Q: What sequence folds into this?
């Protein structure tokens, strides 16, 4: 979540010209960058929960970006 906010801010503040340039600089595809940035469309309370999610100490992370994709596409935050 923090990465999505940071990357979005880089373009919004003009530190990086376009999202295409940002993807190139980060050596990721534009599709992958889009998936990450989609997290900024989540409701603010969900974003806050993600930002303060406890770190995983052992094993794989239980919550991955791909688990949130469908929720991030919702236009109605009440859903």
A:
């Amino acid at each position: 979540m923090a990465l999505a906010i940071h990357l979005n801010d880089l373009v919004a503040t003009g530190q990086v010209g376009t999202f295409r340039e940002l993807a190139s600089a980060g050596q990721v595809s534009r599709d992958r960058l889009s998936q990450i940035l989609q997290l900024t469309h989540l409701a603010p309370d969900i974003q806050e929960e993600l930002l303060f999610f406890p770190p995983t100490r052992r094993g794989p992370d239980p919550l991955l970006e791909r688990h949130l994709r469908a929720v991030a596409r919702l236009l109605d935050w009440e859903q």
About this structure: The CA atoms of residues 27 and 41 lie 23 Å apart. The first helix runs from residue 2 to 12.
